[in-house]
Write a structure and sequence with these properties.
single chain, eight-stranded antiparallel β-sheet, 8 strands, alpha+beta
Length: 203
Amino acid sequence: MSVVLNLSEDHRDCLQEVSNVAMGQAADKLARLLDTFVILSIPHIEVMKPSDIVMALHAVDVNDSISGVCQGFTGGGIAGEAILLFSDTSFTDLAKLMNYDDELDDQAERELLMDATNILFGACLNGIADQIDMEFSFGPPLVLGQHQKLSELFNVENARWDHALVTEINYQLEDYEVNCDILIVMTDDSIERLLLKLDYLLE
């Protein structure tokens, strides 16, 4: 029986708290760097199929043109993928906040996307790792696509998993048109090890 499908409410609550702390640390780092207030949602944790992710995020804004980056992570028997989805309307304000004065072409937006990825993924995933007494190593970040619809960015036919535990959080910058979603995706292969770590926190 799939471990991820049998996630208990205690485990879900514990993981939500771990994620909340880690993503709050990421928000704090971003806020200090950009000298602005970061608004973040409560982490949403759900067992999903690849098609569920598209539907869940479509509920945010089906008309958005977005750019996305993914980065794999692994350590101590846990592996997964972090995904950053960035609203294309965000680049102008993000460039302003990061004092980027050059022309805002696709390459410049790619650089800004990578900068945001490095800040958020590093702080968030290291925050999770610290709380469960692990250390993650990271693969190189990979641009999923730029200026695409969500359904184009996520080709569910290419998904390498049937079900996964997905933690989603939304970040917005107060008084600026900067909006992004982070997804942390963990599949069955990693969940059993993760649950053992959560059990230590629950005891």
